[in-house]
Automatic annotation (TrEMBL):
It is found in: Cell outer membrane. The keyword Signal applies. This is MipA/OmpV family protein. InterPro entries: MipA. It comes from the Bacteria.
């Protein structure tokens, strides 16, 4: 439940294409992403991460994997898509976090699940669209003996503006994305981050049992653009935990905060075959 779900896919999945356009069937390249984020949502201790990663894109008619994430079109509709939603969270060593001192470490986590996405509106120029996205993801601890860490549901409204600063219909220019929505998590997911068992309780950290329910609001702004074979993007996100079912946990030290990050990819090898992308 960290600010950046995955330093590779999450950082680069800043805006979906609105215009129909032709892109190479496959691409190979490299990238780098950076992010500043708290140890966990509600932590008052922040870490900075810088991560190089390989960039590989492959686009089939029904399945696409690229900077916009993994998308599987399982039924033919210009108003709805069933996509695959992926994410991850980095580990947290409790000895490096004052609030969690003496408690078990937070293990790295992988999240995956379906996202049912609906197009609510698009303008005639087809460079602005409003979508409702309904991702439901299962969280799994990434360890030698994988273990479930619950479920997260984060419905959101997403509006994309494509080709800013360019003539209508242009595929060039800047792409702006605005996303807002609540988060909900089951008891196991909330307990993983916010429960304090009796054995770890102390004077300044009373025992606490987290429950399922509302997990706060998120508001995200992203900006991205392609320059030839290079793509650049950046985002800022505001999290508000006021009213969250775990707000009274002694591990919640901050109820609102801003995180931010950037990504750059370079595509140095591409297929000569082009496929249609966008115009969902």
């Amino acid at each position: 439940m960290n600010a950046l779900r995955c330093l590779g896919l999450g950082l680069l999945a800043l805006a979906l294409p609105v215009h129909a356009e032709q892109l190479p069937r496959w691409e190979v390249g490299m990238g780098v992403g950076g992010v500043s984020m708290p140890d966990y949502r509600g932590s008052d201790e922040t870490r900075n991460y810088l991560l190089p990663f390989p960039y590989v894109a492959y686009r089939l008619e029904w399945l696409k994997a690229d900077r916009n994430g993994v998308r599987a079109t399982l039924f033919d509709s210009d108003k709805a898509e069933l996509n695959l939603s992926l994410g991850a969270t980095p580990p947290v060593r409790s000895k490096n976090n004052v609030a969690r001192e003496g408690m078990p470490d937070i293990k790295p986590m992988i999240e995956f699940g379906p996202s049912l996405d609906f197009n609510l509106w698009r303008n005639e120029a087809d460079n602005t669209r409003l979508d409702l996205r309904l991702p439901l993801r299962a969280a799994i601890e990434a360890r030698s003996n994988p273990r479930s860490a619950g479920w997260v549901f984060s419905p959101k409204l997403n509006i994309d503006f494509v080709g800013l600063g360019m003539p209508a219909g242009s595929k060039e220019g800047w792409n702006l994305g605005l996303v807002a929505g609540p988060m909900f998590a089951d008891r196991r997911q909330n307990a993983y981050f916010y429960t304090v068992d009796e054995e770890y309780a102390r004077a300044d950290r009373p025992a606490y049992q987290a429950r399922s329910g509302y997990a706060g609001m998120q508001f995200l702004t992203s900006l991205s653009r392609k320059f030839g074979k290079t793509w650049v993007g950046a985002y800022a996100r505001y999290d508000n935990l006021h009213g969250a079912v775990f707000e009274n946990s002694p591990l919640v030290k901050r109820s609102s905060y801003i995180t931010y990050g950037f990504g750059v990819t370079w595509s140095f090898l591409q297929s000569s075959e082009l496929v249609d992308v966008g115009d969902n």
